[in-house]
Each structure stands twice: as C-alpha cells, then as structure tokens.
From TrEMBL:
Keywords: Cell shape, Cell wall biogenesis/degradation, Peptidoglycan synthesis, Signal, Transferase. This is L,D-transpeptidase catalytic domain. PANTHER family: EXPORTED PROTEIN, L,D-TRANSPEPTIDASE. Residues 34-92 have a biased composition (Low complexity). Residues 1-25 form the signal peptide.
Amino acid sequence: MKRVRFAVRAVSLAAVVLVGVGACARDPQGDGSGAAAPAPVGVTEEASGASAPPTPEQPAASPSATPSRTATPKPSRSTTPKPATPKPSKSAGCPQGEHQKAVETYLTRLGGFGTLTVDGKQSAADCAAIKKFQIRYGISPAAGRAGATTYDVAKRLADTDTSRCRAGSGLTFCVDLTRQTVFAMRGGKVVMGPTVTRTGMAGYATPTGTYTVGGKNMREWSNPYKVWLPYWQRFNGGIGFHETTTYLHNPWIGSHGCVNLLHRDAVRLWELGSVGTRVVVFGHRAGT
C-alpha cells in the first residue's frame, strides 16, 4: 500500500514540474530578456537541410546488416564554365543622344568646354564637355546626353551674330529675339558673351527698339503677377531684365514681356549695368 502511495506522489510531482517549466518558469537557456533561447545545433541543421534524417529511399544502416561491396565512384566529367561575355558599357557613363555630331560641332565652335571629336560618337572627352555645357546653361538633367534641348541651346548660341546689334560706343545690352540670346558690348567688343534667355510669349511679345535702363532693384516685386523678380533692371515701362523664376528651357512657357535670365547671367548683367545703360532689342521670337 505504501509503495502505491509513493508511486502516485512521484507521478504527481513529475506532472507539476513539467507544467511549471512550460507555463511559468524562465527558460534556463534564455538570457532573461524574454527572447526565445537559441535552438540546439542539431535542430538548426535539420531545419536548414544540412543534416536531414534518412529517407525511405535511403534507409539507415543497422549494426547487424551485412556490409555490401561499395562501388568505387568513377570521376565524372565536369564542364568548365565559360567566362561571361562582358556587356559593352556606355562610354564614360554618358548615353549618346540623337544630336551627338551636331552638338559636338556647335560646342567646338563655341569653345571653352573642352576638346571634342566631331565624329558623332560619344567619348569620355565628349561626355565631360557636354556635361559642362549643360551645367553652364541650366539644362536638366546634366547627364552628358546630346538631346533636343542641348542641341537647341548650342545652336542658338553658336548662331548668334553679335554684329547685328547696333551697339553704341558705350556699354550696350543686346537682346536677340530670334535666337533668344542676350549679350553685352562696349566699344564694339563683346564684354559678356551670348547666353540664353526667354522673352515674351504670344500676346506679350517683347517689343523691339532702342531703350535705356531706367531703374534697378536687386529684388523687385511684381504687382500683377505676385512674384519677386531678382536682379531687376527696367528698360521699357514694366519690362526689364531679371532672373527667371521657372525652368528657363520650357519651350511652351514665355514671359509677360520681360527678358528672363539664368541666375549667373542676371547677376553679371546687374554688375555691368547702371541707370542709363543702352538696351537694343532686335529680331523676332517665333510664335509671337
């Protein structure tokens, strides 16, 4: 009878211990943080397939099994992998545009952007020169690709004929509406080379003629259009030179008559000019 009671107590105690470990006790292999303990190495390997148990197709050998002859494995032919053929890379990281040769030609004529080879093929030197040109004239993205905008700007600058401006002996600001460029002359010499501009759109065409700068303000407020006009130089009523407030190379956008300039060009013109500076506007912007 005593033996039976002792056995019952032993079984009950074992059940309490097992329930306690599963429900409340801290995992002895844990770090006390509540995180799960690391799995035993064998479990991890089995889960990853590194040490899988034998399958029915490959029964485990028993100690009593008669050893069988094992065939000597024959070396199998291993195919040597062929080296991958490298793909041709884009020259200097610059894609080639549809106007490559024309842009090379215009940039060579303009000078100052590096040595280009006029062959219609992108090279590292061509890439660097085109990027430099794009950065200078605010063309985005400046990725070295000879696309439509780069072609248009380069052509307009290269085709600008400074002799067409009827400049006086003193300082003269010249606006070529046809090519949408601006430059400055003094005594018959160019003191600020042609740069890009954007003049009045249809219905707001910038008028041709000879004028003088009548007022300057580093930051002028436009009452009609509620916008600041940096580096403002007025030359005809409410029309004047100023830094552009939008991307200059959107062809479908025009000003309300003013002569829009990139920041560095607006600053340079501001530094050159003064009240009384002569302004000559000539040519005709297409579509106005």
